[in-house]
Inverse folding.
């Protein structure tokens, strides 16, 4: 897997600029800005510029997920993609209790704490599928993206020794 990642980064570097590569990686599900900041560090992109690129890249898909994911899942269910639709619904269902327990703060922490299976994509999916208030959900997700950016910047750019 590590070799594939290195190959993919090398290929992207030949086709796209390093900053565009980081932006695209930050938009991808699962990887999101967490991976974007790690890639930015690997590509020697200035920390503040990397944070801005990654935050914007991670925000871009959120409105589309919030507004269209239910329609997409419904369409998938009717067009021989029901396994994917079921997977998405199960993922939302599995994560709903984590978010429901604390509401706004729960969604913020779910998006912001960089653990496997969490992030803006999953947080947006849960918010949309379970009809959370879009304004509150959007603000919570945005703040979660900022929290994740802070945590991952500290980790990716080796700032932890400077803090302690």
């Amino acid at each position: 897997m590590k070799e594939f990642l290195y190959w993919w980064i090398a290929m992207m570097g030949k086709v796209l600029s390093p900053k565009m590569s980081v932006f695209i990686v930050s938009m991808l599900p699962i990887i999101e800005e967490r991976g974007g900041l790690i890639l930015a560090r690997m590509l020697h992109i200035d920390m503040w510029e990397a944070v801005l690129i990654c935050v914007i890249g991670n925000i871009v898909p959120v409105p589309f997920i919030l507004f269209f994911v239910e329609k997409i899942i419904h369409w998938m269910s009717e067009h021989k993609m029901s396994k994917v639709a079921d997977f998405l619904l199960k993922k939302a269902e599995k994560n709903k209790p984590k978010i429901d327990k604390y509401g706004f703060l729960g969604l913020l922490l779910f998006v912001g704490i960089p653990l496997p299976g969490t992030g803006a994509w999953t947080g947006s999916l849960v918010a949309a599928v379970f009809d959370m208030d879009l304004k509150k959900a959007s603000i919570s997700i945005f703040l979660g993206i900022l929290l994740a950016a802070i945590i991952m910047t500290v980790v990716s750019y080796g700032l932890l020794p400077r803090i302690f």
